[in-house]
Amino acid sequence: MTANTMNPSRTALLALSLALAAGAAHAAAPAAPAKGRTMQQVLDASQPGDWRELDPRNTIYLELERGRVVIELAPQFAPEHVANIRALAHSGYWNGLSVNRSQDNYVVQWGDPEEDAAKRKPLGAGAKAKLPAEFARKSAGLKTTVLPDVDGWAKQAGFVDGFPAARDSASGSSWLTHCYGTVGAGRDMAPDSSNGSELYVVIGQSPRHLDRNITTVGRVVQGMELLSVLPRGTGALGFYEKPSERAPIVSIRLAADVPQAQRAPLEVLRTDTPLFAELVESRRNRRDDWYLQPAGHINVCNVPLPVREKKG
Amino acid sequence: MTANTMNPSRTALLALSLALAAGAAHAAAPAAPAKGRTMQQVLDASQPGDWRELDPRNTIYLELERGRVVIELAPQFAPEHVANIRALAHSGYWNGLSVNRSQDNYVVQWGDPEEDAAKRKPLGAGAKAKLPAEFARKSAGLKTTVLPDVDGWAKQAGFVDGFPAARDSASGSSWLTHCYGTVGAGRDMAPDSSNGSELYVVIGQSPRHLDRNITTVGRVVQGMELLSVLPRGTGALGFYEKPSERAPIVSIRLAADVPQAQRAPLEVLRTDTPLFAELVESRRNRRDDWYLQPAGHINVCNVPLPVREKKG
Fold first, then answer.
1. Could you tell me the residue range of the domain that residue B218 belongs to?
2. For residue A57, which phi and psi values (nearest 5 degrees)?
3. What is d(CA B228, CA B66) in angstroms, rounded to the nearest whole number?
4. Within the 189-218 window of chain B, which residues sit less than 8 Å (CB to CB) from chain A?
5. Residue B28 near chain A (CB below 8 Å)
6. Residue B216 — φ and ψ, nearest 5°?
7. Who contacts A311 (Cβ-Cβ below 8 Å, separation ≥6)?
8. Is B311 on the interface with A (CB under 8 A)?
9. Is the same domain home to A39 and A58?
10. Distance between CA atoms of B123 and B109, rounded to whole angstroms?
11. Are A3 and B114 inside 8 Å of each other by CB?
12. Nearest-neighbour CA in chain B from A292: distance (Å)
C-alpha cells in the first residue's frame, strides 16, 4: 500500500486506535498479542465487580443547552465544599447562571457573572458563605492505588476511589491531582475564600501546579466534550467580554434530586482492582502492533478512567 | 471580605492569574517578590535578542473560516516531511479540504476525507507519495536546553529551537514531544506510511506515548483556540459522521508564498537563553502570593512558549 492510496479515515483509525474511550467501536479487532492485552481486551474481560455505580448523592448534572455534563463529587477530599455544592444544587442556585470563562488549554469556569457583589444571587439558606480551605487531607483512611511510575509533581501519584490523586509520605497528606476533567472551586487570594459556588474544570494539559493550592471537589465523568469546545473568551484569563457569549446553565442538579428515569445510569471502573492495574499496564506499554516503541511509563493524568452505561 | 461578596471575575483573575499567556493583561500587577520574578516580569525584562522571528520558509498558515492557525515546522526533526508539507502548501493541496476529526482530549486531524482512494485529490507534482519515517533523529548537531526536572517518558526533556523535545543518551537520539499544539503526520500501520498530507494537532493532555511512534513535524504557535473548540466528532476516534460537520479548510499556505503584508509578524521566545531558564523557573515555582505551595517541578509540556507580534 502506498501512502498515496491510503484511506485517510482508516489510516487514522489504525494510527491512533488506542485513543479510543472505553467501549467505542474498533475498526479492526486484533487478536490478543502474547505480550499482553490491549485496553479494550482488558475491559471486555471485566466483571461486574470491577465497576462501581455512581452514588447519586455524590453526582451532579450540569445541563447545558447542548447536553448533560456528569460530575462525580469527592467528599472524601473536600467534605465541606461538597456539602455546599449539594446544597447549592438542591436549591437550584446555578439555574439560569452561566459558564463565564473559557481559557484555552486551561479551564472553563461557571458561577454568577455579576460584577457587583450587592447584586449577586444569594447562595440560599442551605449553603454556607464561608468554608475552610480543603486543599489536601490526611492520607490515613484512604485506599490509594499507587502508580510505580515517577510523577515529578508528587512523591506518589495514583488513584483513590476512581479519582486521580497524589500523596506525600512526609506530610502524610493526599490530594486530588489537576488532570483533564478535574473540577475545583475558584478562590480569591485568601485560601479559605472559596465556597463552591464558582467551579472550574480543567480542559487542557494537566495544570498540576494548582495541586494543593486550591480546593478540588471532583471530576467530570461524562460530557467533557460539551465543556471543552466552548468558544474561548477573549478577555483576560478567557473571560467572555460580552454577556451574550456566556454559555447558559439550564440547571445543575444533584442526581439524588432527579427522578430515577432521568438519571444517567453510569458505572465507572474501579481503580483498586487487579483489572485496573492491567488496564494501566496496557496503556503504559501499548499492546497493538501499531506501536514500535512502548512508552514504558505513564502519568496519572494519562490513564483513562472508563465509564459505561449500567447494564440491565 | 466574605466569600459571598466575592466578585467572581476578580476572584478568578486572582485565583488563576498565572495562567496568562505571555503579554495578556494582568488584573493586578504585583511588585516583584524578593524570591524571584513572575513570568510576566521576566517577559517584560526580555531584550530583542531573546526573541526569534518565525522563518517564513518554516511557517504555514492554516486558514479556517474563523481565522488563522500559525504552525512552525521543524525541518531539523523531519526534513522529508517538512519538504513535502512545503510542496503541498505551495501547490494549494489542502485548499478546499477539511478538518475531518476532532477527538476530545486527543487530536484534531485534517486532510482529504475521501474514503475511496481512487477519488482522492492527487498530491501534485511537487510532493512525494512516499517518505521515510522520521520518528527521531541523532542528537548530534542539536542545541538542547535540558530541563533538570524528571520527565518519566524520556531520560531527558527540554527544548530545541523553541520546540518541546526529548532525548536519550543511550541511543543518541532526539525527538519532538507530543504536547498541546504539537503537529504530527498521521500514518497507517507501516512506519513509513505517512507523507504529510494528513496532519493532526494535539488538543488535550500530552499523549507522550506517541513519541517515537509517529513523525512529528512542528507545533502550533498561534490560533490553537480555533482548533481546540471544533465540535467533537461522534464517529469512532472523533471522526465526523456527516460531511457537513467537517470544518472547511479555506487554505493552507507557506508563509513565504504569502505577500508580506498578509503575513503574521510573529516572534517566539528563544529557549536557549538565560531569560528562558528564568521563565521556566518562574513557572516551576510560582512567584505570586496566591500560591501557597510552589510545585518545585515542571513538565516539558507545561512550559509556556510565548509568542508576540513583532515590534516595529
1. 55-115+127-132+180-264
2. -75, -15
3. 12
4. 189-195, 197-198, 200, 204-214
5. no
6. -100, 140
7. none
8. no
9. no
10. 17
11. no
12. 6
Residue A33 has pLDDT above 90, yes or no: no
Residue A8 domain flag: no
Residue A44 lies in a domain: yes
Do A231 and A290 lie in one domain? The reply is no
Helix (H) or strand (E) holding B45: none
Give the alpha-carbon dihedral of B8, B11, B13, B17, to 10 degrees. Answer: -150
pLDDT band at B125 (very low <50, low <70, confident <90, very high): confident
At A74-100, the pLDDT tens digits run 999 999 999 999 999 999 999 999 999
Do A40 and A146 sit in the same domain of this protein? no
A52 forms bridges with which residues in the sheet?
A268
Whether residue B165 has pLDDT greater than 70: yes
Q: What is the pLDDT of residues B180-197, one digit of tens each?
A: 999 999 999 999 999 999
Residues A56 and A43 both lie in one domain: no
Whether B29 has its CB under 8 Å from any CB of chain A: the answer is no
Which chain A residues contact residue B112 at CB under 8 A?
8
Q: Are A173 and A225 contained in the same domain?
A: yes
* Residue B82 belongs to domain with CATH number: 2.40.100.10
CB atoms within 10 A of CB A283: 18
User: Is B187's Cβ below 8 Å from some Cβ in A?
Assistant: yes
Residue window 62-91, chain A: list those with CB within 8 Å of chain B. none
Total domain count, chain A: 2
